[in-house]
Amino acid sequence: MISHPRESGPSCSAITLTQLLVALAILAVVAFLAWPTLNNALHKREMTRTMNHARELYLASFHMATDGAAKSDPNLAWPGDYGATSLAEYCGRLVQHDYLKAEDVQKILTAPGATCAVTSSAGSPASLTLTGKSALKVYKVKSGDPSTAIFAASSNYVYNTPLNPGSVPFGDKGFVVIRKRGDAGVYGRNQATVSHWGNDAAEFQSKIGRLAGAAEGAVPSGDGVMVLAGPE
Predict the structure, then answer these.
(1) How many CA atoms lie within 13 A of 51 on its CB side?
(2) Which of 180, 210, 226 has the alpha carbon at shortest distance from 59?
(3) pLDDT in 10s for each residue of the chain, 232 residues
(4) Which of 18, 113, 149, 189 falls between 20 and 30 A from 5, CA-CA?
């Protein structure tokens, strides 16, 4: 019996390698196209986490101010009512009166690109020292301010000012705001100024918030002296 040689052709390994290269190329293209959406989702997740941390800070502050009003204790008050001069001083008061722990403050004030280290010094009263960069800043809200007054915001946001891509924690990707009434939100870069809201000051103050101490309809640019900023 005469055997005939099989015709030569592409090897299975060559075909497999070609298919693999094609598959890798397709995956690379899909990853390239999907990256902006994935990146935005990651930023949104981190901003949501920071918003939840801001709520923790707000709740501790609200409880302290409520207790202070009930007890007529001026030491337990909103930051603007007793003249807090720094974020460290204000957070130290929350820790001193057991509304937060020092480790809670460190977690609350930390976000991607903004790591805030908190140390508590011995003494009576104990004081806090903040080093690094804080993800949040607190405004000098008073008991007489309206419920729409901004209590805290992510440190990259300056009132009625375009976001700076080099600022922390989120650059110009978006920002976080929590108001005195306790509601909070994550906002996009184009929502930072009153111009996005059709230059409607009332709409801006309703949706983003009113700067502490500002009159109704007044939308200044910049935080002025109304903010308790963390270390930079």
Answers:
(1) 18
(2) 180
(3) 455 555 555 545 556 877 777 777 777 777 666 656 666 667 788 999 999 999 999 999 999 999 999 999 999 999 999 999 999 999 999 999 999 999 999 999 999 999 999 998 866 566 899 999 999 999 999 999 999 999 999 999 999 999 999 999 999 999 999 999 999 999 999 999 999 999 999 999 999 999 999 999 999 999 999 999 888 6
(4) 18
pTM for this entry: 0.82
> How far apart, in Å, are the Cα atoms of 171 and each of 119, 158, 165, 196?
27, 12, 4, 18
The rounded distance, in Å, linking the Cα atoms of 87 and 79 is: 9
3-state secondary structure of 201: helix
Residue 163 CB coordination number (10 Å): 23
Q: Are 147 and 180 in contact (CB under 8 A)?
A: yes
